[in-house]
Amino acid sequence: MSDEVISLSPNDLSKINRIIREISEQKTKIEILNESIKDAKKATVDDLKESGLTASRLNSMIKIYHDNSKQEYFDEQSDLEALYENVFPIKG
User: Fold this and answer.
1) Helix or strand holding residue 10 (H, E)
2) Do 44 and 75 lie in a common domain?
3) Total-model pTM
4) Do the Cβ atoms of 58 and 45 come closer than 8 Å?
5) What pLDDT was estimated at residue 74?
6) Which pLDDT value is given to residue 1?
7) Would you call 91 exposed, middle or buried from its count of C-beta atoms within 10 A (0-12, 13-18, 19+)?
8) In Å, how far from its chain's centre is CA 32?
9) Domain range holding 67?
């Protein structure tokens, strides 16, 4: 730890306090959302276990959909394309 003393005004201290509290609140929200995502994925795989849907395939489809990277992914992973097309049919 440094022996350097930081000189902060009461206003600076208040600002730091506020920012840290805001960041902590946001991190708590992210943790809650991540837990919700984890639960939704597990429930989906459990509900569709007999169909052969695996957590890995579901995670791949979620990543592809979220990143909007279908073409790049299928250039490398063509075996998942049919399943993805069935889940997200082309509208037209």
Assistant:
1) helix 10-47
2) no
3) 0.68
4) yes
5) 76
6) 58
7) exposed
8) 11
9) 54-92
Burial readout 33-64 (b: 16 or more C-beta within 10 A, e: otherwise): eeeeeeeeeeeebeeeeeeebeeeebebbeeb
CB-count exposure of residue 13 (10 Å: 0-12, 13-18, 19+): exposed
Three-state SS string over 42-88 comes to HHHHHHCHHHCCCHHHHHHHHHHHHHCCHHHHHHHCHHHHHHHHHHC
Which pLDDT score is estimated for 47?
96
Task: Tell me how far CA of residue 81 lies from CA of 49, 57, 58, in angstroms.
Answer: 20, 11, 13
Calpha distance 28→8 (Å, rounded): 28
User: Number of structural domains, the chain?
Assistant: 2
23 and 36 co-located in one domain: yes
Give me the average pLDDT of each 10-residue run along the chain (92 residues). Answer: 80 96 98 98 95 93 92 77 83 66
CB 73 within 8 A of CB 57: no
